[in-house]
Amino acid sequence: MKEQIFLDYAATTPVDEDVFEAARPYYTQVFYNPSSSHFLGQQAFAAVERARENCALAINCSPDEIYFTSGGTESINWALGGVDGDIAVSAIEHDAALGKAELLEKSGVSVSYIKPDSDGIITSEALNSAVTDATRLVCVMAVNNIVGSIQPIKQLAAAAHKHGALFFTDAVQAINSLDIDVKEWNVDMLALSGHKFYAPKGVGLLYVKRGVKLKPLFVGGNQEKALRAGTLNVPAIVAMGEAIKKAKALREQYVAHAKAVSTEFISNLNCGSVIGSRDKTDDIISVVFRGKNGYISGGKLATALSLSGVCCSVGSACSAGSATPPNALVAMGVEHADCSVRFSFGKNTTAEQAKRAAEIVNSVVLRF
Question: Tens digit of pLDDT for each residue in 73-101?
Fold first, then answer.
């Protein structure tokens, strides 16, 4: 089998060794239920609360505003379904948000969709056009998971609040690249997922600003203030607490590295058109490719690249297998959106890998 160059970090990241080691004792030694009132259970409870403090410090909130979940999808579904009334959702959201919005619409909730510009940016003007005084919640992701566009969250939250609506942002793809400050942004809710910043899969969080009334997600226990019943995943929560602390400390280093490897990749790529040109992170790029016989199906090209040693995607891993192009690209008005491929870089991506991957892409595209 060919050596594989992994350029799909937007789909998932490996667990850092030190993060894994921090979690290890809570699988085999301090394995107790944090809801137990006895001494041993309280050891696990203390570990959960230390992780909660780490998460709160990383995004500048109080620990009691952090609710642990199983990941980004759960957090997004909870936020959108936890408030009564009309909602407005950007048309470039992750499928978790768009799918939940569709379900809410079928149940009788009025849903409006906020259109992006051609670079995948949601403007305050676009938000104001979609939101009415009946809107109770506005949802716009902080960094788009397909093209990496960075949204002006502070301005959008202010615009939503002028209409009397709460503002929720999916920051799953933002934690590595942006300095997240929920007070500075003035958001009411925010979602994160551990496996996007070198923590395990199956753990995430929802920040809920103090005073925001949210419906319970699960019932049956008093965990997470009786809003999200179920025994907490202590090892994964401990790991996420360590990983988010590390992500915050190394953010500037990460941003510089992402820029370097992305530049190396693009500078060696002699085919394709990169989508989006302003206000974007460097760790996510989507490219539309055209071969000798016309535009190339993103799915076919991604498969060919994998067989040649480059692992990338045609959009969100959560929508893998879909025959339709990414919703974000369609909403942006990208021509031949079904012919796009997403490449995403991480802190383990080397400049040599980026260069070699670009060379492989160049050679594979020539076959079409």
Answer: 999 999 999 999 999 999 999 999 999 99
**Through-space distance between the first and last CA atoms of the chain, rounded to whole angstroms:** 23
The full DSSP string for 68-131 is: EESSHHHHHHHHHHSS-SEEEEETT--HHHHHHHHHHHHTT--EEEEPP-TTS---HHHHHHH-
* Dihedral pair phi/psi, residue 287, rounded to 5°: -130, 135
Q: Using 50, 70 and 90 to split pLDDT, how confident is the model at 315?
A: low
Which residues fall within 8 angstroms of residue 334, CB to CB, at 6 or more apart? 118, 275, 288, 340
Closest listed residue to residue 249, CA positions, set 184, 154, 175: 175
Strand arrangement, sheet containing 273-274: 273-274, 284-288, 340-344
* pLDDT > 90? residue 325: no
pTM of the model: 0.95
Round to whole Å and give the CA distance between 214 and 195: 25
Residues designated catalytic = 318
Q: What is the largest CA-CA distance in the chain?
A: 70
Q: Over 70: is that where the pLDDT of 1 sits?
A: no
> What span, in angstroms and rounded, lies between the C-alpha atoms of 144 and 367?
31
Contacts of 276 (CB under 8 A, 6+ apart): 119, 120, 147, 148, 149, 286, 332
Can you read off the two tokens belonging to residue 44? 């696990």
Q: Is residue 322's pLDDT more than 60? A: no
Exposed/middle/buried for residue 42 (C-beta within 10 Å: 0-12, 13-18, 19+): middle
For the chain, how many residues are written?
368
- What DSSP letter does each residue of 164-215 carry, written as one string? T-EEEEE-TTTTTTS---HHHHT-SEEEEEGGGTTS-SS-EEEEE-TT----
Between CA 284 and CA 173 the distance in angstroms is 9
Tokens 């500048």 found at:
60
Residue 305 and residue 296 in contact, taking contact as beta carbons nearer than 8 Å: no
What the block records as the tokens of 20 is 């894994």
Per the CB < 8 A criterion, the answer to whether 189 and 165 are in contact is: no
Which amino acid type is present at position 50? R
